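Subject: Sanity check before I submit

Could someone independently write out the structure tokens for this chain? I want to compare against mine line by line before I put it in a report. The sequence has 123 residues.
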Amino acid sequence: QVHVVESGGGLVQAGGSLRLSCTVSGSMFSINAMGWYRPAPGSQRKLVARITSGDSTNYLDTVKGRFTISRDSAKNTVYLEMNSLKPEDTAVYYCNVEGRTTSGSMEADFDAWGQGTLVTVSS
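---
Independent answer below. Compare away.
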């Protein structure tokens, strides 16, 4: 079993910056990719940024050039550096982890979510 914990949300003025962190803990697991999602009107959570174990990244078009995702594999942690924040970036940001757990000879893929961290951008 893995646990996903986010931190770093808060209140910031438009144009400001925030850094979100997400750490995965547990035993006998490997990570394939980690990403940040936020709710979108009329849809489920929308991908904001994602990074793979090979450091490939992809971003939501509206955050390209403003947000940067990075990871520290030794700490099982992913970061989202958010700059030039806009009021429309206000949301609960959820961390998602895709990986595989190993128990004896058994392996199982997992897709785990954190509880979310609130980012509020005031105008």
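---
OP: Matches mine. For the report I'm noting this point. The radius of gyration is 15 Å.
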